[in-house]
Give the backbone structure.
Amino acid sequence: MQITLTAVFQKVPEGYIGFVRELPGANTQGKTLEETRENLKEAIDLVLEANKELSAVAIDSTTVIHEELLIS
């Protein structure tokens, strides 16, 4: 599956800051643009994993249906 997100980068005196427009909480910083890009990929993974764990706790005692959702 492939999803296209919008990464936004801003030059600051310390280097760069970056965030993902469509994914609140996915933000980072780095000394170089390339470092910030790599850090942002890691931040996305962490946010998605945390959201997955939070939703598992929220639906723990209920009956639910799990299925893959293809986004193109």
Summary: The longest helix spans residues 33-58.
